[in-house]
Amino acid sequence: MRRPAGRRRVVGILGGMGPAATADFYLKLVQATPATIDQEHLQVLIWSDPTIPDRTEALLAQGADPTPALIAGAKLLQEAGAEMLAIPCNTAHAFLAKVEVEVDLPIVHMIEETANRIHLLQPTIQRVGLLSTTGTQKAGLYQASLAKKGIQVLSPGPQSQANLVMASIRGIKGGQSGLAVKSQLVRAAQELMDAGAQAIIGGCTEVPVGLAAADIAVPFVDPARILAESVVQRGLALRDAAYSMQYAASPPKHR
């Protein structure tokens, strides 16, 4: 007998950073959901705002602060009925503390979820390579979270970061297919593996659009997929709790 859908937490996705990464994240959210019919999927609100100022520019070049736009988007989702928030942009997490103060929503933290997953599933890993925006690198987001787990983060050298990683990220944001930039990302990942990386983190949501686990010889960690799985886990937990309460209040009659 199929379990009733029950109530589930409405998921708000604050996206547009960039649009392709937001679409990719929603697909991963759907794929992570153990559903066999439409009605078993989560209820999702997506606010994709590509006008949010560039996060790396804000961190490195005194560009426009994206915080007001992030707060506005989070409030819009809250007012529309979202009960938890996912932000599929790694660099945006550098501004998350100010967003959390302004909205009354639990935010699923992608970087922390990723650090926890690596530590749990790959306990022998001591060094990981990070492919991300320069803003994420400089903000030390992964470095701080993984250091708590005793894991060192290796970053590309300045030339590789600019000419391979950032060039690939900009290419995907500019509409290039993943295949067009795959070789650049593979080269950057290989340099990190040669330096001792035991796994590679796709620490920008554009990176997994161009790089896949099959392309490299060590585990490939996709924070967007981990975020999607964490969101689904939380959403379904509330649904199952609601079902249990309903069952306790009115158990089915057996004939």
Please, could you describe this protein's structure?
This protein has 255 residues and is an alpha/beta fold. It has two domains: 11-109 and 224-247, Rossmann fold, CATH 3.40.50; 111-222, Rossmann fold (3-Layer(aba) Sandwich). 42% of the residues are buried. It is 51% helix and 11% strand. The longest helix has 27 residues, at 223-249. It is built from eleven helices and eight strands. The strands form two sheets. The protein has a four-stranded parallel sheet with strand order 2-1-3-4, with helices on both faces. Strands 6-5-7-8 form a four-stranded parallel sheet. The chain has helices spanning 19-32, 55-60, 67-80, 96-102, 110-121, 134-139, 141-147, 158-173, 178-194, 207-210, 223-249, and strands spanning 11-15, 44-48, 84-86, 107-108, 127-131, 152-154, 200-202, 220-221.
Properties at a glance:
11% strand, 8 strands, 2 domains, Rossmann fold, single chain, 4-stranded parallel β-sheet, 255 residues
Task: Tell me the helix content.
Answer: 40-55%
Instruction: Please name the CATH architecture of the largest domain.
Output: 3-Layer(aba) Sandwich
List unreliable stretches of 5+ residues: 242-248
Kindly identify the CATH topology of the largest domain.
Answer: Rossmann fold
Average of pLDDT:
91
Give the distance, in angstroms, between the N- and C-terminal Cα atoms.
15 Å
What class would the helix/strand composition place it in?
alpha/beta
Q: How many helices?
A: 11
Q: What integer value in Å does the Rg equal?
A: 19 Å
The tally of structural domains comes to 2
> How would a textbook summarize the main sheet?
4 strands, parallel
CATH class of the largest domain: Alpha Beta
Tertiary shape: globular
- What percent strand? 5-15%
Total count of strands? 8
Give the SSE string.
EHEHHEHEHEHHEHHEHEH
How do the strands of the widest beta sheet line up side by side? 2-1-3-4
